[in-house]
Design goal:
The chain is built from 6 helices and 7 strands, in the order E-H-E-E-H-E-H-E-H-E-H-H-E. The chain is an alpha/beta fold. It has one domain: Rossmann fold. The protein has a 7-stranded parallel sheet with strand order 3-2-1-4-5-6-7, with helices on both faces.
Length: 227
């Protein structure tokens, strides 16, 4: 798939995270110009094929609308932005739930909507969301997170059906715990060899976001590794 994205513009939210950086590398290596709307105040180091825009709150409807409206025509929009929190169900507050919905679902909803608007003008494209394995195998102590990622999965399927005649394919990946420095630090006794690596998940995302994917839409693709 070398140069399969040559001349194409792709949005990647959460592009400064461990998985995001792997996805950016995969898309840049395939020739894409990657547009990174980042929440933090500082952009990453400048690099060829990367256009970072710091200070964008992806849960702010006006900010997301303005960001996408200012982009050149895009062929793919990949939504990795999100967050995780764990707490026993009986201790989970409404604020906890709303925080998870905002970080994981609202950001994906707004970016999907604006990506569809942009892609309809351009004649089609690809959207990839990130849900989680817990959508299919819920885990105790993660109810708010499970609910938020399940909403992302439902969004993916609903949007895929609505845009099926627009040349837009919409899918989501369902990773388990990804092998990142932060997860290794948090779980020092885990068998990390069973975790999927960011670059492996990135390869799946790259294919789903590419023109090589001509049929798959509305799918929730497992990227579990051996975990």
């Amino acid at each position: 798939m070398a140069d399969s994205f040559a001349g194409q513009h792709v949005v990647i939210t959460g592009g400064d995270g461990a998985l995001g950086q792997a996805v950016v590398r995969a898309l840049r290596d395939a020739g894409a110009t990657c547009h990174l709307p980042l929440f933090g105040p500082a952009a990453p180091p400048a690099a060829a094929g990367v256009a970072a825009a710091p200070g964008i709150d992806l849960s702010d409807e006006g900010a997301v609308t303005a960001y996408y409206a200012a982009l050149p025509p895009i062929t793919a929009s990949i939504h990795l932005a999100g967050g995780f929190a764990s707490r026993a169900f009986v201790d989970t507050t409404r604020a906890d739930l709303e925080a998870q919905l905002t970080m994981n679902f609202i950001t994906a909803f707004l970016c999907c909507r604006e990506a569809v608007r942009a892609m309809r003008k351009g004649g089609g494209g690809r959207i990839v969301n990130v849900a989680a394995r817990v959508v299919e195998l819920p885990t105790a102590g993660m109810t708010a997170y499970v609910v938020a990622k399940s909403a992302v999965a439902a969004l993916t399927r609903a949007v895929a059906d609505e845009v099926r005649n627009d040349g837009i394919l919409v899918n989501a990946v369902l990773p388990s715990i990804i092998d990142t420095p932060a997860n290794r630090k948090a779980m020092p006794n885990a068998d990390v060899a069973r975790w999927p690596r960011p670059e492996d998940v990135a390869r799946t995302i790259r294919w789903l976001a590419s023109a090589e994917n001509t049929l798959t839409s509305g799918a929730l693709v497992p990227v579990y590794g051996r975990s």
